[in-house]
Write a structure and sequence with these properties.
Layout lengths: L6 E5 L3 H12 L3 E5 L11 E4 L2 E4 L5 E2 L3 H9 L6 E3 L7 E5 L2 E4 L4 H6 L5 H6 L17 H9 L1 H16 L8 H4 L1 H10 L2 H15 L9 E4 L5 H10 L3 E2 L2 E8 L4 E7 L2 E7 L1 E4 L3 H4 L10 H6 L6 E9 L11 E3 L10 E3 L1 H4 L8 E9 L11 H16 L7 E7 L10 H14 L3 E3 L9 H18 L2
Parallel strand pairs: 1-2, 1-14, 2-10, 7-16, 14-20
Antiparallel strand pairs: 3-4, 5-9, 6-9, 7-8, 11-12, 12-13, 15-18, 15-19, 16-17, 17-18
Helix pairs in contact: 1-10, 1-16, 5-6, 8-9
The chain binds flavin-adenine dinucleotide.
Length: 460
């Protein structure tokens, strides 16, 4: 019997799965989203605790793609939308136990004490340094040391990488993890000349760069977006449905899943997997034994997110920024902290301040073996000292992510190439999610549009 609409099964109801499903639904495909958990959102998780809103995964997203605005309009979320406070443009980095504002202009750069005079003068050499070897097998640490010097690696890139990937610059591939940065050298021959030229080119194309994209969230937190997409999709989203296997049929695929203890299956024309690599590793063994190795090699370090609320009058330093990041050389027990209620005022009453602290990542995955209580006490003490806080928190909460963020490490390109070939060999099967095409919420949404376009081109 000929079906009216093509059936597409999307595995996983994180932001990647939900966005792709919504875009395909709008294009008249019959979509079914299968989600393991009882709730949707995946890494996007907001809870309300004692009247406080805690974003336990991403705290915000950058509006780097028009698809975000499209979703907000379609889902009637305009009233819910919050843009970040202008104060959040200011970011701090710790050096010698002092928080230094990250310089955002050439005069501020000349004045800052975050970098030594020697490091500043070293920048003049950057335009004369030639192109490097293959960026896929070159770490961001190696790349930055060669182009900008060791001090920039230690006090700019090392904390930045911890803030974005919870990662280690010695392990991340510059071309896989920071393709735009590497492209400045590849295309223009250097970072300074490349930045100037690409700003001009972007202006011509009216594009938004990550550093100038607006930062957003919602009045009820980040989970508003996945919840709203899932509501719009209604019964097309099935929760508590654990996908065990995808089987290749004569025409199309069969997705086998466990729904609250009973085994079910769906025949379909296309399958989009958006689950993390460590979950995808079992799904395709029926017809490809080689793929599991690639999924298994993508490392997701553990991260502990610690949420603290203080009375404002106990904090003796100005709250005038996004938060701060900590270079490894400073030897603290955490990676950095976001000043959540500065970024999105209204998160707590005016007389209180909320902070989100990140612990672990690739820099210190061993934290999982420590006594949690002792670790959190040490982190709290270090944080309170840096913030000049003179009274204990009035609320504490934590969320442990056993496998937090995929690392696009050296050699990642081999996985990427295998995944591309796998899709070519298996028409109608698409691999998506944050281990491909970028880890940020904005990148996941941008990538979801690309995947939806691929489906449109191949499954008609
Ligand atoms: C602590 C933390 C902080 C972050 N901070 C930021 C930030 O500030 N800004 C930013 O832009 N990004 C941030 N990120 C990254 C960003 O949140 C994620 O990369 C993004 O949300 C991933 O979305 P996804 O849909 O690709 O994957 P996921 O969110 O992982 O979704 C995958 C879904 O698949 C489901 N699933 C797994 N296995 C199965 C199965 N067998 N069957 C059915 N379903 C299954 C899972 O339950 C999950 O719901 C952060 C991430 C973390 C963990």
């Amino acid at each position: 019997m000929k079906r009216d609409k093509k059936v597409v099964v999307i595995i996983g109801a994180g932001i990647s799965g939900l966005t792709t499903a919504y875009l395909l639904h709008k294009k008249n495909y019959q979509v079914v989203v299968l989600e393991k958990n009882e709730i949707v959102g995946g890494s996007i998780e907001t809870i309300s605790e004692n009247g406080f809103l805690f974003d336990r995964g991403p705290n915000s997203a950058l509006e780097t793609t028009p698809v975000i605005g499209f979703l907000i309009k379609e889902l009637n979320l305009k009233e819910e939308l919050l843009y970040a406070n202008k104060k959040a443009n200011k970011r701090y980095i710790l050096r010698n136990n002092v928080l230094h504002a990250l310089p955002m202009s050439p005069p501020a750069f000349l004045k800052t004490r975050l970098f030594s005079l020697k490091a500043k003068l070293r920048l003049f050499a950057e335009p004369f340094i030639g192109r490097s070897k293959d960026g896929y097998y070159q770490s961001i640490a190696e790349f930055v040391t060669r182009r900008l010097g060791k001090e920039f690696l230690d006090y700019a890139i090392n904390p930045f990488v911890a803030g974005v990937y919870a990662g280690k610059p010695e392990e991340l591939s510059v071309k896989s993890a920071f393709p735009k940065l590497y492209a400045l050298e590849e295309k223009y021959g250097g970072l300074i000349i490349g930045t100037i030229r690409s700003i001009r080119e972007r202006k011509k194309r009216a594009e938004v760069a990550k550093q100038s994209a607006k930062m957003l969230s919602f009045k009820e937190g980040m989970q508003t977006l996945p919840n709203a997409i899932a509501d719009a999709l209604g019964q097309r989203v099935i929760t508590s449905a654990i996908v065990n296997e995808v089987k290749k049929e004569e025409s199309g695929y069969k997705v086998v899943f466990d729904l609250k203890g009973s085994l079910k299956s769906i025949q379909c024309d296309a399958v989009i997997s958006t689950v993390p690599a460590y979950s995808a590793n079992k799904l395709f063994v029926d017809f490809d034994q080689g793929i599991s190795k690639h999924f298994n090699e993508i490392y997701y370090p553990p991260v502990l997110v610690y949420y603290l609320i203080y009375s404002k009058d106990s904090i003796k330093r100005p709250l005038d920024g996004f938060g701060f990041l900590i270079p490894s050389l400073e030897k603290k027990s955490f990676l950095g902290a976001i000043w959540s209620s500065v970024i999105f005022p209204g998160r707590v009453d005016d007389d209180k301040a909320a902070f989100t602290i990140f612990i672990g990542g690739s820099r210190n995955p061993e934290f999982v073996d420590e006594s949690r209580e002792e670790l959190l006490e040490r982190v709290r003490n270090e944080f309170e000292e840096l913030m000049k806080i003179q009274a204990p928190p009035i609320h504490k909460s934590e969320r442990f992510w056993d496998k937090a963020i995929p690392q696009y490490n050296l050699g990642y390109i081999e996985h990427e190439r295998f995944f591309d070939e796998f899709e070519q060999k298996n028409p109608g099967l698409f691999l998506s999610g944050n281990y491909r095409g970028g880890i940020s919420v904005g990148d996941c949404i941008k990538n979801s549009e690309l995947v939806a376009d691929k489906v449109l081109q191949t499954i008609r």
